[in-house]
């Protein structure tokens, strides 16, 4: 990828209906992990006008007060009015136990499902992530910050961002276009009632976009689309149905890397959809940090109930400093890729998951994100 091109990634705010569902599902998972680290959880959430449905397969000795947990999560996000409120919405609990046919394979240490999982790393940012998705996440995080700190008190919880980066010679050179969709109240509408005021638009550009995107990446040709339909008063579950697991590209690499298709939120770590993706990211990041490649994609694949992965593939887009086959050998030698090995190595039987459910699962150095650690750099360097 040495040519010139534009690449776009999007993110969504914590109040986006799909992300609300992800956070509720992971809040349920965290509560189970807090009480029963070996509980089995596959929790799905559906949200629409005035209604939250929580379903899925959970086998545990823990007690989870679903109603209290859902209302607490909605309140924390900010749904205290905005046409959808934490204290008045209806909640339906439709949770059952995990299938015994699946359990008999997982109990012996096998994978909780079949599938392929992908991890990725590159040198575009200090976090070793693609620049477009990192900037998009920073924008949605900033939307939450300016709302909760009353810097822009007219904002609501729902929102989206999108960043188009111009690449020259295969490397990020400038931000070409920024898109911000920010839910708001009626106080910033102009006299027509159909558009936000020019002052509010400029305020969103200055206090959100320019506050987080480095000035070196912006110029007088950068395009800004702020609430391009004109207004965004009706948002959240009042305007859009949400479901767990519908933002898998937002959750990962913004489209810069392939995706195996499996979502993360609401799944305990025996589900390799989640744990093996975390491990694949950890491996790719350590390979790039060890300067064995500038870009690295790791694919793992599993069969349900089988302990060892059915395949391990590493590609580096021609940037590898040692042969890709050698990198595969190093990975198999130094990383335990069994589901049980991944869980123990990354310390995944803990209530760490709700924090992952908004603003991306990767490129974050907060506590609990063990897959982001660079503890294998020297080992890989030495053995390579």
Question: Could you describe the 3D structure shown?
Answer:
This protein is an alpha+beta fold and 384 residues long. It has ten helices and eleven strands. It has helices at residues 17-35, 66-77, 100-106, 131-148, 198-212, 248-251, 272-289, 324-334, 339-346, 377-383, and strands at 5-12, 40-48, 51-59, 90-96, 115-122, 155-168, 171-184, 223-226, 242-243, 295-302, 311-315. The strands form three sheets. The chain has a four-stranded mixed beta sheet. Strands 4-3-2-9 form a four-stranded mixed beta sheet, covered by helices on one side. A three-stranded antiparallel beta sheet has the order 5-10-11. The model has no long low-confidence stretch (mean pLDDT 94).
């Amino acid at each position: 990828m040495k040519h010139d091109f534009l690449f776009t990634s999007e993110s969504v705010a914590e109040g986006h209906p799909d992300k609300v569902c992800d956070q509720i599902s992971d809040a349920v998972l965290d509560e189970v992990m807090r009480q029963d680290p070996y509980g089995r959880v596959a929790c799905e959430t559906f949200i629409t006008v005035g209604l939250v449905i929580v379903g899925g397969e959970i086998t545990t000795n823990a007690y989870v007060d679903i109603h209290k947990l859902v209302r607490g999560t909605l309140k924390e996000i900010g749904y205290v009015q905005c046409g959808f409120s934490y204290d008045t919405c209806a909640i339906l609990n439709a949770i059952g136990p995990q299938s015994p046919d699946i359990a008999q394979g997982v109990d012996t240490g096998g994978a909780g499902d079949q599938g392929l999982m992908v991890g990725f790393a590159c040198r575009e940012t200090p976090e070793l992530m693609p620049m477009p998705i990192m900037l998009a996440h920073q924008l949605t995080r900033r939307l939450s910050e300016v709302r909760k700190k009353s810097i822009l008190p007219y904002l609501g919880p729902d929102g989206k961002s999108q960043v188009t980066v111009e690449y020259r010679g295969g490397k990020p050179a400038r931000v070409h276009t920024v898109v911000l969709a920010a839910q708001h109240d009626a106080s910033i509408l102009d006299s027509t009632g159909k558009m936000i005021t020019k002052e509010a638009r400029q305020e969103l550009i200055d206090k959100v976009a320019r506050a987080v995107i480095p000035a070196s990446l912006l110029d007088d040709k950068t395009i800004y689309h702020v609430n391009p339909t004109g207004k965004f008063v009706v948002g959240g579950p009042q305007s859009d149905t949400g479901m767990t697991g519908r933002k898998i590209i937002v959750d990962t690499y913004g489209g810069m890397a392939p995706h195996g298709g499996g979502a993360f939120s609401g799944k305990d770590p025996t589900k390799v959809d989640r744990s093996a993706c975390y491990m694949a990211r950890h491996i790719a990041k350590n390979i790039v940090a060890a300067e064995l490649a500038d870009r690295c994609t790791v694919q793992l694949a599993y069969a349900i109930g089988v302990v060892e992965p059915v395949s391990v593939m590493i590609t580096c887009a021609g940037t590898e400093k040692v042969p890709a086959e050698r990198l595969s050998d190093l990975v198999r030698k130094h990383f335990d890729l069994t589901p049980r090995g991944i869980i123990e190595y990354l310390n995944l039987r803990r209530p760490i998951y709700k924090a992952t459910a908004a603003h991306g699962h990767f490129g974050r150095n907060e506590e609990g994100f063990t897959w982001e650690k660079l503890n294998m750099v020297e080992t890989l360097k030495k053995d390579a």
